[in-house]
């Protein structure tokens, strides 16, 4: 959940067995109210989605998405209006069981962490320009 279109209310980016879908808040879903949501029509991931993380990964003020599949994850850049474009960079991992986003090196940019149950974990450091190393 996050404000994906910049209007101050929460939208939902939900992972499914077919991909991830954006549900736009049409208003009313505040303070326990039921509200109305509309499917945006954009399939944000073309494969099975295991996890979705929202964070401003490029510093432009909107929430981007890190979408994890079975053995790789990809960043989807948000244009600020809840329309997403997939980054060309992939984060491949084998037998990794979890991902997290946080500033691991203290430079002010969110990094990507892959935790493993039986092997080494890995961090991809945000370079501040839309790339991770």
Tally of helical runs:
0
Give the N-to-C terminal Cα separation.
Answer: 27 Å
Low-confidence stretches: none
Question: How many DSSP E strands?
Answer: 10
Globally, the shape reads globular
Helix content: under 10%
Topology order in helix (H) and strand (E) letters: EEEEEEEEEE
The domain tally reads: 1
Sheet with most strands? 4 strands, antiparallel
Radius of gyration over all CA atoms, rounded: 15 Å
Mean pLDDT: 90
Q: What's the arrangement of strands in the largest beta sheet?
A: 4-5-6-7
What portion of residues belong to β-strands?
35-45%
Derived from helix and strand composition plus strand pairing, the structural class reads: mainly beta
Quick structural gist:
This protein has strands spanning 12-15, 20-25, 37-43, 51-55, 64-68, 72-78, 84-92, 96-102, 111-116, 122-124. By secondary structure, the chain is mostly beta strands. It has one domain (12-124).
Describe this structure in words.
24% of the residues are buried. The chain is globular. The chain has strands at residues 12-15, 20-25, 37-43, 51-55, 64-68, 72-78, 84-92, 96-102, 111-116, 122-124. The two termini are 27 Å apart. Helix content is 0%, strand content 44%. It has a four-stranded antiparallel beta sheet, with no helix packed on it. The chain has one domain. The model has no long low-confidence stretch (mean pLDDT 90). With 133 residues, the protein is mainly β.
């Amino acid at each position: 959940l996050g404000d994906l279109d910049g209007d101050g209310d929460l939208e939902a980016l939900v992972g499914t067995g077919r991909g991830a879908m954006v549900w736009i808040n049409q208003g009313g879903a505040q303070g326990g109210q039921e509200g109305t949501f509309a499917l945006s029509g954009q399939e944000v991931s073309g494969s099975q989605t295991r996890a979705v993380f929202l964070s401003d990964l490029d510093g432009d003020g909107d929430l981007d998405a890190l979408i994890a599949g079975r053995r790789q994850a990809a960043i989807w850049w948000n244009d600020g209006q809840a329309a997403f474009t997939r980054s060309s960079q992939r984060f491949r991992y084998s037998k990794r069981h979890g991902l997290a986003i946080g500033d691991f090196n203290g430079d002010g940019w969110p990094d990507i962490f892959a935790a493993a149950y039986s092997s080494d974990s890995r961090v991809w450091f945000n370079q501040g320009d839309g790339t991770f190393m």
